Amino acid sequence: MSGKDTLAFNTEPFIKIRKDLHQIPELGFQEVKTQRYLLNYIEELPNKDWLEWKTWRTGILVRLGGSSPTRTIGYRTDIDGLPIEEETALPFISEHPGMMHACGHDLHMSIALGVLTYFSGHQPKDNLLFVFQPAEEGPGGAKPMLESEEFKSWKPDRMVALHIAPELPVGTVGTKTGFLFANTSELFIDLKGKGGHAAYPHQANDMVIAASYLVTQLQTIVSRNVSPLDSAVVTIGKIAGGTKQNIIAENARIEGTIRTLTIDSMHLVKERIEGMVKGIESSFDCELSIDYGANYCQVFNSEAETSAFIDFVKELDYVKFFESEKAMTGEDFGYFLEEIPGFMFWLGVGSEHGLHSSKLNPNEDAIDCAIRLLIDYVKGA
Ligand SMILES: [Zn+2]
Ligand SMILES: [Zn+2]
Description:
five-stranded antiparallel β-sheet, about 35% helix, alpha+beta, binds zinc ion, 17 strands
């Protein structure tokens, strides 16, 4: 199933667009060049009578008025890159040192422009809203965007988003109803004690030791506090402290992430962390502070919309459906789904290297597949 107009639509330009965007990755709320690039493109689109747009911080909202609308369908793409030094040998490698589109948001954006371009030439029946959302990787653009007047005045009745899946081959699409991605929280703990000479430990208060005890204790939260029938992750990805081999460390810092299946277990994990932090303070006579950084709620796909999408995908001859499993990854698209029914799905891009890898190299054939899929979905919705 793919309409004649859809088949005739040339998706080739969106591969070049993806390459252009890949060269200018920017971090959350600093997507100035990216926003300018997108606006330059949107401003050139024909059929301005049913096309409107406005900016929100470094993001953009584009609305296409339908011919006989009964509702508004929203499609969200994230637009930010990551603080990663790209290690591919691609001819269109990142021009921004230390930054890379290593999560495929460059593909997400080019797909959005493809679908937008098609419907700017073929007026849809229902209204469409294209949401170019900043700062998905942090500090989180979805929540403040959702709360903005700019978004509220064009609030859609359904929200759809995709994310590239390097481990799935091109031509595959995966999702599931209900819980898709976890509740997530960053975790930063600073420890402050009293430094000193390595040979006079009795005059100092060693934060390397305190941090080591804390990291060990944190491991017991999942094994001893979270129900074995529930699931959670507490990962400490970084530990830093001290200055030199013969100086007792005055400061240490622990950085990690928390992932849970439910909001309740997120509260439980945080409560336990806070208890352990107090314990370390009194047992090592030091001061600790906790910062939870960016917190994202779960991505929960609404039953009716997701089932209908799955049925639709199963009918298509150019994509294969794959039943996804829950994942402990996080996505701030979950905030949209808290208020608006809809779903997120995985798009296979067959890359040997995974998300957030400095070597991620998605197969660009997936762009054509996704554009057609979304056009057909909107037409049939
Ligand atoms: Zn990411
Ligand atoms: Zn991402």
